[in-house]
Amino acid sequence: MSKPSIEQIAMKNFHNNLEYFQKEQPRVYEKITAFENAVANGYYQEQYELEYKDEGYFDVKEKSTSNYLYGTNSNEYAKALAKSVDYRKEDNIFIVSPRFEYSKEYLKNSKNDSLEENGIAGIAYIIDFINKKLPKDSTMTKLEKYIFFGVGLGLHVKEIDKKINSDFYLLVEDDLELFRLSMFVTDYSKLARHSSLYFCIFEEDSVAKTIMTLFLEDGFMHNHYIKFLQTLHLDESKIRTFQEVVASQTHQLFPYHAYFKKYLTPLEHLKNGYKFLNLNSDIFKGKKVLLLAAGPSLEKNLKWVKEHHKSFITIALTSTLGTLEKEGIIPDIITHLDPFKEGSLPHLQRLKNKDYFKKPICLFGSQTPPELVEMFDKKRVFIFENGTSYKKGFGSVTATCVGSMSYAISLALGSSEIYLLGLDLAIDEKSGSTHTSTHSHREKLDLSRLDKLEKEFSFKKSLIKVKGNFKDEVLTTPNFYMSIENIIINNSKNKKDYQKVYNLSDGAFFAHTIPTKIEDIVLKDDCKKETLFKEFLDISSDELTYEEVESIKSMYQHSQKIKDILSRHRLKKYKTKEEYQYSLMSLSLDITADRSIEASFLNIVLLRYMQYIYPYIFDFLNTKEIKYSKESIKHIDTLLVKYMKKIVEVFEVRLEYFLTKECVA
């Protein structure tokens, strides 16, 4: 049989890839077939030609300039790139889990701290032990995850994989036509036989972030250090996008102990007899809502708000109350979400007259600190569930900030017209301010940071450009960007056809809203809201049904099962670092195996804890200079199980206490 020609090999590679993409990577497959259809129908003219050189390598020629992508032996170039890849914990690397150090004094003082109040206490001793064992300059035994920023013809992908044999690859390429040509040269289906592949091909930022997030979530225990390679034809924008994703990781933004408040504080509110609001209602239908958030646009338009707020059901975030008090503006509804006293109480403690806001209806998220809730008239407080479901059929809303949450509630309650003011989610272009002057967390950001590729990417301070509501572009932060995305998702999923949303803020644009200048709003009569309080009473309840109590009992029973899983794990013995790695992976699978609603709350807290601490432990086990030590592994595992059991005990105690005080309808 004759040896297959280069053309035959290339076509086989292409068809192997096409078959693989169709089955396993449908998004990539759809892009490739759409591209081919566009070319076939004359909608797009190909820019490149794939050439095979006599010297035995492929190159790509740009038709318009006759320039070549490689301009040299692409096989040798790929080998040179592979040779440059090393296992050091520096250079071309993302530090996905930042390294922390803790003083002796802190470790001593936090030894007996409750994990509910101090989540760092559950990780500090493990990280401190690992820090002391790790040499100053260390290398990784294996690069478990690797990122290619720029695929080209994929030749360097093959060569680097031969060297490092990673379990997870993220492949980023912005040139769809170039990627299609790589399918003739590189057989990605072979790579997929031993590695999990995440393709980010010709994607806009929002989709790219989703793919990158999935890459991080898969095999999260290997996320301490991730090496990458950037080819010259791909600019730095996608690297910056990945930095944003790293800075936006859920377990970093909302540490595991924050979920105690999310899942357990609602029980405290129920125990104390507060009314829970049924969000599956349309009591706002036919009514106009003015939502006031604490962005810079609120202060710029206070005169208008003072004159016209009675024409709406005016909803104001607690963070705006200091600003409104100065102008003598009393909203109809006050909303709050922040679960932490440190971030919540200052807004109210700064008020000159706390009785000033006794009349408004209070809509508080179910994780709102009891200390804040108790500052208001109990009769006028209504709790809405966010991320929990203790009251069955009452609905639950999720959002990343109180502004987007208040907007979601306005949609859920059926408001026909919603006017957004102060929900800028952008930086003031002149001052760099993030919020109004009275906001407790107001910052002035350095606008010169824009477009800089920073080594330390900050979730709250790094700057990115987004479409503006009234301007072509405005500056925002990754923190605000998450809320922008949340609003867009709410608009696409929950906004009804009859609902109109007017964005009055000089900030970010939100899809499916109408940018509207304040002077263009035509208002007639004041909004009728005399019966509003009674309507809220009619759709709320301060009791649990028998079925709801039984569900909470099931949560308690699940906590007992998790304690048994941890106890069984603790009895295991290990002969190698690898055996311990596999045992930790099995532990995470065993804990999260139960997907029932009753198991989900505790499982999520434990998962967030593992997402935080596992990368440190796995990095320790993956460090070449660290030899197997039975004592070290035993010490780490003892601490790990100790703190995981403490997490379970927090749930166990709080659930047990609630069930002895239950209120059943």
Question: Which short descriptors sum up this protein?
Answer:
665 residues, alpha/beta, sialyltransferase cstii, chain A, 3 domains, 5-stranded mixed sheet, 19 strands, globular
Description:
It is a single chain. The strands form four sheets. A ten-stranded mixed β-sheet has the order 18-17-14-9-10-11-12-13-8-19, with helices on both faces. It contains 24 helices and 19 strands. It is globular, with a radius of gyration of 28 Å. Mean pLDDT is 91; it is low at 434-442. A hairpin with a 5-residue loop joins strand 1 and strand 2. The protein folds into three domains: 6-84 and 140-250, no CATH class; 274-518 and 531-541, Alpha-Beta Complex (sialyltransferase cstii, chain A); 544-660, no CATH class. With 665 residues, it is an alpha/beta fold.
Total domain count: 3
**Order of adjacent strands in the largest pleated sheet:** 18-17-14-9-10-11-12-13-8-19
The span between the termini is 82 Å
Global Rg: 28 Å
**Total beta strands:** 19
- Mean pLDDT across all residues, rounded? 91
Helix content: 40-55%
User: Which word captures the global form?
Assistant: globular
Q: Beta fraction of the residues?
A: 5-15%
Secondary-structure arrangement, i.e. CATH architecture of the largest domain: Alpha-Beta Complex
Strand-pairing-aware structural class: alpha/beta
Q: Supply the number of helical segments.
A: 24
CATH topology of the largest domain: sialyltransferase cstii, chain A
Uncertain ranges:
434-442
CATH class category of the largest domain: Alpha Beta
